[in-house]
Each structure stands twice: as structure tokens, then as C-alpha cells.
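not sure who needs this but someone in the group chat was asking about Sel1 repeat family protein from Cupriavidus gilardii so here u go. i didnt clean anything up, its just raw.
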Amino acid sequence: MRSTSTVEWRGGGKPLAWRRLNPLPVIATAAVLLAGACVAGAAVWRHHAAQHDDARRMQLTQWQTLATAAADPDALASLRAAAERGEVAAQTALGETLLSRPNASEREQARRWLQRAAATGDARANFVLGKAAFLGDAGGDGGAAVNGKPDHQAAWRHLRAAAEAGHVGAAYYLGLLHRGGYGAQPNPAEAARWFTVAAEGGVAQAMFMLANAYREGSGVARDDDKAVAWYEAAAERDHPESIQALAIAYRHGELGLDPDERNFRFHLVETAHALKHPALKP
């Protein structure tokens, strides 16, 4: 039963009575308001932090472009200063920039910077090291040496790390490693799995490889419809080999398509166009 209190009204008359308020609802309301303010504040902080990160990435990209395309010494110096301060993205950008240089000492510096960034789990650094090792632009331990010899062991290690971290370009190259073996047993199913990851991430070359897998039944069940769908997806991204594959399919009535001379000629013209402006490789 709620209690009431009275006070004497100094001006005379009847005493004033009121109910004592239960403080719990008031406290609860205040707590809700405070929590809401904290959530809103955190959201604002995250928004500003994201904007700052985006601006910083744009700045690093600008420096990298100037240092690579124009050999701008000031841009390179800015990248180096940021890398030495411990910025992982700057370390990767600096390593990638130096990797493009013909000077052996600079490429050795690239190796060290990229390995330093990769050690933190940076997907881009692992991708660059892995791709370089796979293509023969890297030396021991996936570095950036100039001996021109592939290092498949390092390629496997770095590309797997990058692909598992969500880098779709690395997923494509990891698919190539699984498809060809390269120091391991070829695994068509794993190749198709990683080509799928890369294709769904928008990599045209992976779309082409996945289309081939469905066409041949390599690592996946043969499926002409899916093969055509992935060839068409890659063709929309100006991938010459995919457009050519569609042209041949229309010419000979393959992959479940009816022979169609008009479509054959159309895709033949598109192939020539795509060869002038091919899809960028990851």
C-alpha cells in the first residue's frame, strides 16, 4: 500500500498531501536515455572513424599512383614515412610500389615491407607476395627478388592467407594453384570452389575458369547452362576468351545453344573489341 505524507501549509488552510513517487521507473527511464545517447555517440564516432579511414586510404592510393606512374620522389617519401610510422596499409602500398621498380635493392626493400605487412594478416600484402611468387617476380620466402623464378611454396602460403581473409584476386590465383598442382596434387574440386569465390566477387578471369569447369565437368558436375551463364557474365566485363567461347558455341551449336550465325558474328566483333580493352587481371 502506497504511503502518503503531509506538510503543513504555512499560509493556513488544509495540509497538502501527495503520494511518494516510486523512484525505480524514473531511474529506468534515465538509464534508457543514457544508453541511447551512448549508442548514438558510438555510431557517430564509427561514422567519423570510417570517413577518416576512407580519406587516409585515398591519400595512400594517390601517393602510390604518383610514386609508381610518375616516379614522384615526394610521394614515395610520404609513403615511406607513413610505413615507418607503422601504418600497415602504407607498408603494403610502399612494398607494392617498390616491387614495380627495376632496381634490385628497391625490390629487396619491397620484399621486407610486404612481409612486414603480411605478418599482421594484411590481405593485400599477402596477395601481392603470393602473386609475385606464383608468377616468378619473387624470390625466397615469397619476397621480391629479381631471379625470375617462381616460388610455389610461398605462393601457396600467401595466396591461401589472402584468400581466406576475403581477397577475391587471391581466390582466383589459389584456384589456379589447385587446378595445376604446382608442388601439390591437383584438386579440381578445390579449384572450382575458389574460382566460385572469385567469380562471385567480380573477377572476370575466374568467371571464365569457372565456366570452363562447368563445361568440362572439372571439379563440379557438368552443366552447360551454368557454363553459358558464367561466360556471359565474364563477357559483360570485356573478357575476350569468354566472348570467343560464346562465339564458337553459337557457330557450332554447343553448350545447349542453337547454331546462330548472327550471334556468332556479333560475338566475333565483340571479341575483337574486347582484345583492345580487356578486363584487368587481378
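also The mean pLDDT is 87. if thats useful
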